[in-house]
Amino acid sequence: MRRKVLVIGGTLFIGKELVRRLVARGDRVTILHRGRSPLPAGVEEMVCDRNDVAAVRRVLAGRSFDLVYDNVYDWQRGTTAEQVAAAAEALGPGLRRYVFMSSVGAYGDGLDHAEDDPLALDHPFPYIQHKARTERRLFELGLPVVTLRPPFVYGPENGFYREAFFWDRILAGRPVIVPDDGSRLMQFVYVRDLVEAMLRVAEVEEAVGQAYNIADPGPITQLEAVRAFARAAGRDPRLVFLPRARIESLG
After folding, report:
1. Per residue in 161-208, pLDDT tens?
2. pLDDT tens-place string over residues 33-84
3. Whole-model pTM above 0.90?
């Protein structure tokens, strides 16, 4: 079945991989973005700043989609619950699924969170607060919403300077600073696995109204992560262990 799909933010990293998959399976794909990136052949665009509530309502007026994937967060200005809700409300009638990309950050601090743990609605860090409040707002709308909470996402075309930071230093023979003894846990998810989950929750009826942590099977330490990056680069890393407080004091 050919679906009408709107991807809010489909021109970077996760969105690009998602759009490729949607186009490959024959869906009619529209991307809502600020018009700064070229689009794949056959993909329609709607040019709009998703943080502009009035503009979002205007550009979506009279449009209908089967599925919506909402991937955008504005790191400079933040993206609030009301800004996300504006799109969801405008597209409500006839919508089969609204998939929102949240984050494990929505829990706030700590590790090993389960999906029914409370979200950090009043966390001082805006990103965490925005993700948490947006999830609550979307579920209050009574629409067929699903939210996904990935940790660090890795893979091809990652626009964040994460894996590449380590590879650049390792390939240049520069030391990699490891906080404390490197035992702090982290968790990752491969971008193509995350996209597979995005596609799946849009099809499974039982997913409606649910939030899902989506990640690789287990956490690894920061030291294990650095060594994995080094193996991928085919080099032996030069490791320097420094107290975390010292690293933070140096900026």
Report:
1. 999 999 999 999 999 999 999 999 999 999 999 999 999 999 999 999
2. 998 888 889 999 999 999 999 999 999 999 999 999 999 999 999 999 999 9
3. yes
Residue whose structure tokens are 């949607």: 22
Rounded Cα–Cα distance for residues 123 and 144 (Å): 27
Cα dihedral sign for 129, 132, 138, 141? Answer: negative
As a whole number of angstroms, the longest Cα–Cα distance in the chain is 58
Kindly give, in sequence order, each residue whose CB lies less than 8 Å from that of residue 126, ignoring residues fewer than 6 positions away: 78
Three-state DSSP class for 91?
coil
Residue (of 228, 242, 236) closest to 182 by Cα position: 242
Q: How far apart are alpha carbons 144 and 99 in whole angstroms?
A: 9
69-100 b/e (C-beta count within 10 Å ≥ 16 → b): bbbbbeeeeebbbebbbbbbbbbeeebebbbb
Query: For residue 51, what are its two tokens?
Result: 């943080």
Q: β-pairing, 4-8 with 67-70? A: parallel
pLDDT of residue 21: 97
